[in-house]
Every structure is written in structure tokens, then in C-alpha cells.
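Q: I have 388 residues here and want to know how they pack in 3D. Can you give me a structure?
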Amino acid sequence: MPAEGGTRPLVDVIVAGGGVIGLGIAWRAAAAGLRVVVCDDAPGRAASWAAAGMLAPVTEVHYGEDALLALNLDAARRYPGFVAELEELTGLDAGYRRCGTLMVARDADDLAALADLAGFQRRAGLEAERLASRACRELEPRLSPRVRGGILVPGDHQVDNRALVRALLRACERSGVHLLPARVRRVLTGGGRVAGALLADGERLAAGTLVLAAGCWSGGVGGLDEAALPPVRPVKGQLVHLAGPAEPPLLRHNLRGLDVYLVPRADGRLVAGATVEERGFDTMVTAGAAHELLRDAIELVPDVAELALTETVAGLRPGSPDNAPLLGPAALDGLVVAAGHYRNGILLTPVTADTIAELLVTGRVPDRIGPFSPRRFAATTTKEEATR
């Protein structure tokens, strides 16, 4: 998507935002031959750093989100190849683990909720197996004897999100992406299209295309009409990190209850999360949230009480009005949005990176992201316009 006019841009693409989404896009676009710069004052340190790394298209499925389910499943299928390429290029371990996920019920109400979910998963053709309480404890011996039953989802895995960030940063460096330590303050326009960006440090960049991938901050970038700004908002999530022995592991699978999930790393670390709070841009860690997460985790796995508490963290998920991402051209020529991934940012990294890079190279919107146009919330946008 080159800029119009006689002046050649300094770069082909500016990526505003250096989380896993922005870094993934930059890596793929640079690998395809584009000159790319990523602008972020703390790349990889916001929502991408605070995530737990669950890759859970099946256990996080919701009614009425068929298009999002298809996108999530596609992303999960791409993960092994995406990680293999990343690790080969960088020599770093991205922390991808095929561990499966076990959802468990603590009481009769939880069990009824899981039965309802299992029915929905079965009707959707998803791989999920109902288990009695004894079978759950055979899979995970440290489970509380109070667990009433569960659902095993063998295809829902995990990635160490912080290892993924480190690998993507190195991949960008090795692919020729230029990383600038400043946020995009304002999108510069000219002739009815993107002309570049003004950075927070006062530097100006010229480019005909800008990818807005700044997570929940994407809606606050200056220089854009309201119609071009993505309707994203921050949704706070708090997590706690714990550490225990790698052998024997406390858990072999990701473990989910209705109120908490536990993600075990190969080295004995354990991430417990996560709250869902509409608190604006507040990132304060609260004692109450940490207490509730630990209480719920210990109720499922009593031995969690013996682990070392190593970190508490809060991040801001980029929510959208329908909880689905905004992917593709916005209502300004040269502006591409990749934001609003909400709870699925880590999961959707491969498919977002691949499809947005394809758009940048070809100028065409891939069919896979057609349903997620940033212009779908505009009342006057036609279907044809939204996918153009």
C-alpha cells in the first residue's frame, strides 16, 4: 500500500504499537520485503507482558461468536508453524507447550454450567470430553477431592507470553525492522490519506501506511476523525505469579475453574488469573483481587498454598463493542487497524500477523479477516465497503 505523490516515504509501513500483535505484523511484513518501523516506548511490556498465555479457542468459546471461534481455531492451527519459524530465526525458545486444558467444577452449580458448555462445544463440532471427578484426579492428582467433574480439551494449549515477546523482538531485529522508543502521538495526513506519524518525542516519520496496533490505546491516537478511530477500551486484568518445583510438576495441564485459571510453565512457575474489570486505564494491583485469585486457586488445588508468591501484575486488555478484534483498513486511506483482540491477543498473534502482512503487501483484505473490519460499527458502512 504505497503512498501517493512524488515523495518516496522513508519507510513503507509504520506500526504504532509494539505488543505481540504489532511485533508479529512487523516481522511478517519485513520478511515479505517491506521497510517497517515499530513505534513504542516500551515494546512488549503492556498487555502482552501481563497475559497468561493460554491458547484456548475451545474452552473460551461463547454463544453467538461463530466468526470469532473460526478465527481463534485458525490461529491455534497456525501456532506450531509460527513458533517453529520464530525459533529457527531467533534461536530462542518461545515457550509453546502442547499441554491441553482441563476445566473442572467445584460444586453442583459449576457442574451444571460445564454440562451446558460441553453441549455447546459438542454441537459446534469441537473436541472436548466430559470427565467424572475420579478421571479428573487421575489426570491431575493434586486436584481437590471436592472437584465434581470436568471437561478435557486436548487442543487448548499455552505459550509463555514473555518468551514470545522476547522472540518476536529478536525476529524483528533480524528481519530489519527498525524499533523506535516512542509512541505515535498523531497520524499525519495529506491528500485524504495517511502521510506519516508524529511521535511523542517530536520526531516525524513519512510513510503511506500506518498500522494502528496500540492495544487499548489505539482509540486515543491524534489526527484521526472519529470514523477512523477504532472503538476500543481498556479492560483490566490482574494475575498472580507463583513458583514451585519443576519435578514433579504441580499440574500437567492448564486448569480452569469458573472463577480462575492456572497455567503451569515447564520450569515450575504457575500463573493464576485473571480478573475482568472495567476500570479505565487503572493498572494498580489490588490486595482484594490477589486474595480472590489465590483463594479460588487453592480451592481447586490446595497445594498452591505452598508455592512462593513471586509477582502480581495488572494489564489492560483491548476490548471492543462485540469482543472481537478490529482487523483491516479503516475509514482513511492508508490506515490499517489491528486492535481490539480483548482476551485473545496472544492466541490471535499468528493469524493477525499473517493476514495483516498479506494486506500490506497485496492491498487486498484476506477472506479470513473480512468479518472483522474496523468499519463494521459504522451505521452507514455497507458490507461491500467494510471488506473493500
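Q: Anything worth noting?
A: Residues 1-8, 380-388 have pLDDT under 50 and may be disordered. Residues 95 and 160 are 5 Å apart (CA to CA).
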